[in-house]
Structures are given as C-alpha cells and as structure tokens.
Amino acid sequence: MKRDDQEILKEVQKNSSMAINAIETVSQMVHNDELLQELSKEKLLYSVIQNKATDRLQRERAEGYHASGVQDMMLKGSIQMNTLTNCSTSKIAEIMIQGSSKGITNMWKSMNHHQNSGNTSMEIARELVAFEEKTISRLKKFL
Description:
By secondary structure, this protein is mainly alpha-helical. The chain contains five helices and no strands. The radius of gyration is 15 Å and the shape is elongated.
C-alpha cells in the first residue's frame, strides 16, 4: 500500500472516530428525540465508513489510526465546556455542525496533500466528505 493511501485512510479513521466519540458524548445531553434519532443514524454511518477504511488498511497489512486517550479527553472536555451553560438542542446541533466542518476541512487537507493515493482510498475519503456535508444540512434544522 502506498503511503498516500495509508495516510488518507488513517485520516478517515480519525475523523470518523472523533465524530462517533462526539456523538456518544452529546447523546447523553440530548432531550430532543428527533435529534437523538438523527445522531444515532449518523453514528451508524460513521461506523460504516470507518470500517471501510479499516478493512482496506487491514487487507494491505498497513498500520491504522489509533486514538489516544488524551485526544478523547480533550474532545469530551471541549464538549463539556461548550455545553456547561447551554445544552439546548440548538447548541448541540451547533457543536456537531462545527465538528463536521472541521472534519471536512481536515479531509480536504489530507486529500490535497496525498494526491498520489489510489481511487479506492480517495473514494472512501470523498464518501466521508459527502456524508459530513449532508450531515451539516440535516442538522441545520435543529439550530
């Protein structure tokens, strides 16, 4: 497996992992059933995309992304701080939209820096970006 492929797929894993962790963290604060259902669907689809990247890396016996406990704590701490005084449906949607926007930016950076990756890796990365763009659109109604 080319290094560019590995780096793109690791970024997909990282992005998906952070999104799943964020959803798990905010889900405990959600009081709107419709938003909770939306987040549950998103979590499932992030897992599917993450698994595609993981499967591809494992097939090629390449090293994947490994989340650090520090990153997880920072993510959860950031969410806790941002919802300390306001954990409304609108605030949670805003936090998730910001996270998806950051994820899109990070994926585009990775895709632009690793242009020598193969079609399959880029396809998975584009799938994640498209999903995050749709996620933002769906979450806007909760603002």
